[in-house]
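Input record (one chain):
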Amino acid sequence: MKKIKRSIPIIPADLETLPFQQAMDDQYISNCKIAQETIEYQTDEALHFDKVVFENVNFLEAAWPRSEFVDAVFINCDLSNADFSRSVFHRTEFRNSKLLGTNFAEAGVRHTLFIDCVLNYATFGFSLCNTTQFESSEMHYADFYEAELKSTEFLSCGMNNINFIETGLKGVDLSTNRFENIQVTVEKLAGCRVSSEQALAFARQLGLVIAD
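The corresponding structure, as predicted from the sequence alone:
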């Protein structure tokens, strides 16, 4: 099967730096950079972000469900416990950012990169991850319950006790990642690529007694 190439964000080179509230125009923020700021903002209305860079921004438990992020980049940001449930991410990147307990439940995560991030306890339950890449990130106890993973890659991540229950892992390569125990549905494990050491760990989880 031919590997699908992830599309990268389309970001203008000359973005104007604006404060968050000043950049907001009727729930829309576009073509700007927001930097060195603490954002404490919650809303029941969907927000729309287009060609926006967030750098060194601290989000204080942002509650932005059903929002849309297109061509967005987060650099050195803290989005811990943010609520992005049922949101859409397209051509988005999270770089060196903290997403501890962040809620991506039922989200559409397409052509998105998470690199050098902390995603422990993050929730992706019932989400669609399409052409998404998790790289060099810590994902312990992250929840992918009944998620749909299409052309999604996990590269050199720590994922002990990650939850893949009821998630199909056919075509997913876990062989470069670090874990002692993960939760999976055995019937949905077929076609998943693992290292020989990981295969032994799975066998022990199934209760098999491995003879030396």
